[in-house]
Specification:
By secondary structure, this protein is an all-alpha fold. Helices cover 81% and strands 0% of the residues. The protein has 16 helices and no strands.
Length: 417
């Protein structure tokens, strides 16, 4: 008796986890391919009488049905185009020569060349396959028509399935990936801040550099998430402001990618400086404390920027904007203080002026890339450029209004200072 509730609870947990994964790409692809292929076979079997089973229709549906409607449309077009091209090549060959070893080689070569000419991309071999299957039968015309018909039915079934049942939109995973990247950059900056305050050694500086280099691996993963989100929004009836979302996410990743490069260069400067100082800390005393505060504020700015990107594609972004602006203002104040301290360091040790200058230059680049007003101005210009019709309110009006609001806040804060 005691095992029955346990089994029921286990089944309920499995069902709940399965339901939570209903938008997972693997689940979506499996369900859509199964349904699309089954419907394609049923339709082809009903429409095409006689002959062998129309297995090409479900095969085409399997290749055509993708997670996003945009990918389904583009894949379906290339698939149909490849089959039609192969059928035409085979029909032309059947009218001139028969099937022999040399004509087969010439047919394959011609089909592959034509496949590249008509730009069917990954379906180039399908051109040659279709040509060989058609040329190898005795009734070329009947086989050609049957193959084209099955392909059209399979492609139509796949496209119709995604048109009637809108695929999921993957904006949230893309925004989460950007936020995770920002949090990882923040963790590195916070680690640099803590270790500088405690007297960072040469080994610490080398570890910073290695971790900064590893950020490139995560950027590639975030880019893949953004590409998937971009495809899921194209032609999707569930998306109302696809341009807004694509622009915000892509520009956010571009900014973080530049920050990752600058952070790597900054870590390189600190590592070079640690080599010169040998067993001494990278920085000591007041300079180390000021740099620790600066990196803390830059870390907060990076984290606020990541949350701002997510907020701009979901709900209110005012809190993230204000926190980002405040962190940047504190960072610029720290930067000025550090510049004065490093000037004194350079007077005592002139041979290190180049490394001190490189450190300040990289700090300036980080602060400028994350600047609220600069980003707001760029977004406003891009959104105006993508406006659909002159004199008509843009579908991305909400983001433009947020950008103007951010610029006004920054100007007001500067006037108060």
């Amino acid at each position: 008796m005691g095992t029955v509730p346990g089994v029921a609870q286990y089944a309920a947990d499995r069902a709940r986890r399965g339901w939570e994964r209903r938008d997972d790409p693997i689940v979506v692809q499996t369900v859509r391919c199964t349904v699309g292929a089954t419907l394609a076979y049923a339709a082809a079997d009903w429409l095409i009488s006689g002959g062998p089973p129309p297995l090409l229709a479900p095969l085409t549906a399997l290749l055509v049905v993708q997670v996003s409607l945009y990918a389904t449309l583009t894949t379906g077009f290339r698939r149909v185009n490849s089959v039609v091209a192969g059928v035409l090549v085979a029909s032309a060959f059947s009218a001139v020569v028969g099937l022999s070893w040399w004509s087969l080689g010439l047919l394959i070569f011609s089909s592959l060349v034509i496949g590249h000419i008509v730009r069917v991309d990954e379906f180039v071999p399908e051109v040659a396959i279709s040509a060989m299957l058609v040329l190898g039968v005795s009734h070329v015309a009947a086989m050609a028509w049957s193959r084209v018909a099955e392909t059209l039915i399979g492609a139509a079934a796949g496209i119709l399935l995604n048109a009637l049942v809108a695929p999921p939109v993957y904006v949230e995973p893309a925004g989460q990936a950007i936020a995770d990247l920002a949090r990882r950059m923040r963790a590195l900056l916070m680690r640099m801040s803590r270790e500088l305050e405690l007297g960072a050694s040469r080994d610490d500086a080398v570890r910073w550099l290695h971790e900064a280099r590893h950020l490139d691996n995560q950027i590639a993963g975030v880019d893949a998430e953004l590409n998937r989100a971009d495809e899921s929004m194209r032609f999707n009836p569930r998306v109302r402001e696809g341009l807004l979302t694509r622009l915000v996410l892509r520009s956010g990743l571009d900014t973080l990618e530049i920050c990752a490069v600058v952070l790597r260069t900054l870590s390189r400067s600190l590592a070079d400086l640690s080599h010169q100082r040998r067993s001494d800390p990278v920085y000591e005393g007041e300079v180390a404390g000021a740099l620790s505060e600066l990196f803390t504020h830059i870390a907060d700015a990076v984290d606020s920027f990541g949350r701002l990107i997510t907020a701009q594609v979901s709900s209110n972004a005012e809190v993230a904007e204000e926190q980002l602006a405040q962190a940047l203002a504190d960072g610029r104040a720290d930067r000025q203080r550090i510049a004065d301290l490093l000037r004194l360091e350079t007077e005592r040790q002139p041979d290190r002026w180049e490394l001190h200058g490189a450190l300040l230059a990289n700090v300036d680049r980080l602060l400028n890339e994350l600047d609220v007003e600069r980003r707001s101005q760029w977004l406003a210009e891009e959104l105006d450029r993508h406006r659909q019709e002159p004199g008509r309110p843009s579908p991305v009006y909400r983001l433009r209004r947020a950008a103007r609001r951010a610029r006004r806040r920054v100007r007001r804060r500067r006037s108060d200072d």
